[in-house]
Design goal:
The protein is α/β, with parallel strands linked by helices. It contains ten helices and six strands, in the order αααβααβααβαβαβαβ. Strands 1-6-5-2 form a four-stranded parallel sheet. A two-stranded antiparallel ribbon has the order 3-4. About 5% of the residues have low confidence.
């Protein structure tokens, strides 16, 4: 019976592995995604600022600190990310967040872990996801940043405490606002537990860096509660359009 089921699966195509991104049939011996999607989601390994992730030059250029961050550095210490927020990666993250795409958790989590391991990272004491307000969490059903943080916690054998950083004020989505409005919208929206973060080096995790307003406010809150250091890891870094 088992042999018959295998034959039926092979005849009907049920035994073929499909790409979790585009659903195309996967050639045997390929990785987690099809070759086309793997090419479209190549990681950014060089030519970017290690503070803010701004990209310049080409992928083979040595990562460095950009001029803007030398003059006015962000509140966190180092930024790690997989790639640019566009194309296939952007579509996959949006589907993951808003179309109940939990089936892509493992793929995106593996990308987050690999992004950290490619860089010269310092091992954190604990890992903290950017939190959602309870109302937003109930509407969406899960926090994508928490799922990524848990995967990193398993990979690094580090705790991911639930209440180290919480969202205490419900605000309009940042995506609807400009830079100045984003900064005022998110101000004092978070609270950190000093008992959990005081004296700790923290790896803060989110899915996308857009303007940095949310990450900056979270970092400010963690440092105010006594965090000794804050590094940031995101899946994707959005590039600002030139003025």
């Amino acid at each position: 019976m088992r042999s018959l089921l295998k034959k039926i699966a092979r005849w009907t195509g049920l035994s073929e592995k499909r790409c979790p991104v585009c659903s195309a049939l996967m050639p045997s011996g390929t990785g987690e995604v099809c070759p086309d999607c793997a090419e479209a989601m190549q990681p950014r390994t060089g030519g970017y600022c290690t503070k803010c992730g701004e990209m310049f030059g080409c992928n083979t250029d040595t990562p460095t600190i950009c001029a803007a961050c030398r003059l006015d550095p962000p509140q966190w210490d180092t930024l790690h990310f997989h790639g640019r927020y566009d194309g296939v990666l952007r579509d996959m993250i949006l589907s993951y967040k808003f179309n109940n795409g939990l089936g892509r958790t493992r793929l995106l989590s593996n990308m987050a872990v690999a992004a950290l391991q490619r860089s010269d990272f310092r091992t954190p004491d604990l890992i903290v996801p950017v939190p959602l307000h309870t109302k937003r969490l109930q509407w969406r059903g899960f926090n994508q940043s928490t799922e990524l943080a848990r995967a990193l916690g398993r990979a690094l054998d580090r705790p991911v405490p639930k209440t180290a950083l919480t969202r205490v004020r419900h605000t309009p989505p940042q995506t609807r606002l400009g830079l100045k409005d984003r900064q005022s919208n998110i101000k004092n929206a978070f609270a950190a537990d000093p008992d959990k973060v005081n004296g700790k080096v923290i790896l803060m995790v989110d899915d996308v860096y857009t303007t940095g307003s949310t990450l900056g406010e979270c970092t400010r809150t963690l440092r105010h509660a006594g965090a000794a250091g804050v590094d940031v890891l995101v899946l994707a870094r959005a590039q600002q359009e030139p003025a």
